[in-house]
Amino acid sequence: MFFPATANNFFTNLCFAGEKTGIDKRHFHLTEETLVAHPELYDHDAQSLDNRLAMTVDAVPKLAQCAAAKAIADWGRPASEITHLVFSTYSAWGAPSADLRLATLLGLRPTVSRTILSLHGCYGGGRALGLARELAENNRGARVLVACAEITLVCFGGPDGGNLVGHALFGDGAGAVIVGAGPFRDGEQSPIFEMVHATQTTVPKTEHALGMQVSGSGVDFHLAIQVPTLIGQNVERCLLHAFRGGDDDDNDDGGAHLPSPLSGNGKWNDLFWAVHPGGRPILDNIDKVLKLEPEKLAASRHVLREYGNMSGATIVFVLDELRRRRSLLPEWGAMLAFGPGVTIETMVLRCPR
Ligand SMILES: CC(C)(COP(=O)(O)OP(=O)(O)OC[C@H]1O[C@@H](n2cnc3c(N)ncnc32)[C@H](O)[C@@H]1OP(=O)(O)O)[C@@H](O)C(=O)NCCC(=O)NCCSC(=O)/C=C/c1ccc(O)cc1
């Protein structure tokens, strides 16, 4: 690659054998041919935003289409029965927006109710699922397609732009899920996970910690070194809040319909875990503060190792990995996703028997 020696040493140190990052492999839309044709993509002083967006405007919905078509096939009903679409991406901007392009590619009905979530970053997948749950519960018979797709081409750069930690972590990918709340139809796959309760918490005074700045030369990420610690310090409070059914009272007296893994010794180890693998130290800190047994975050570590951090799409990969292991899962689980804010999306999950 074209990184000079100092940057290269730092980068090699981070990425070597995936020991620090926990990542062995990532997938990218960007090819060497594209880089040769577009040297402005690694020249931080060049105006490249227009070219980046011209490339992602079609590529992002097409990537999402691949994931969505697979989710629809697994679901077992025709795409025309989808009533709502929630699309999360930070990497395609323009109007008509990527959700409309995706709806057209999939042949969704013209009355499909579309929402696009932009710039939520890595918690976008969690927010999209939470929103889909609310839509499904409030619209009888609704079937909501959730699609998350990210292509890092908007933020790719050379070492002079900084952001080497982001370059060591982020990858491209798309995931999709169908969300519904009965009545169930013939041929429809039975539910895999029930989203029982969802909460969103913004950690006060942490706006500086995670962010994205747009300029004529593309998008720069800012990931403060404190992020893994901040998440570790706040995650248990978010979980207690969610398992109390969103009750702000600190007494563990609410959420009659929720399980109470909050009493007893093993507590968090009685759950299965779908955690956004934002980075290896984030998972390590969560393991530590919740005193989790080593295999509890196995699905998250597996996805990080095989795909890297695909921002909002990553949580769908983790849920899919858990789906494969579902016969081994306990009944109750928790989902966590993090992003700018610092925002923590928390969801109580149930794996129906
Ligand atoms: C692999 C890392 C980079 C290093 O591993 P380590 O165990 O901390 O290793 P070291 O303690 O040996 O640190 C290695 C080097 O990396 C440096 N470093 C260590 N974190 C840093 C650092 N955030 N900066 C800049 N140098 C550092 C550290 O200072 C040190 O530098 P040096 O002493 O010169 O070798 C690890 O810290 C890591 O994965 N950090 C990133 C965690 C993180 O913030 N993840 C993002 C979570 S939120 C998210 O997923 C979404 C974000 C998002 C936001 C907006 C969107 O639109 C879309 C997405």
TrEMBL record:
One of its GO terms (biological process) is polyketide biosynthetic process. InterPro entries: Chalcone/stilbene_synt_C (IPR012328), Chalcone/stilbene_synt_N (IPR001099), Polyketide_synthase_type-III (IPR011141), Thiolase-like (IPR016039). The active site is at residue 122. SUPFAM superfamilies: Thiolase-like. Residues 12-183 form the Chalcone/stilbene synthase N-terminal domain. GO terms for molecular function: acyltransferase activity, transferring groups other than amino-acyl groups. It comes from the Eukaryota. CDD domains: CHS_like (cd00831). Residues 194-350 form the Chalcone/stilbene synthase C-terminal domain. Keywords: Acyltransferase, Transferase. Belongs to the thiolase-like superfamily. Chalcone/stilbene synthases family. This is Chalcone synthase. It comes from Triticum turgidum subsp. durum (Durum wheat). The lineage of its organism: Eukaryota, Viridiplantae, Streptophyta, Embryophyta, Tracheophyta.
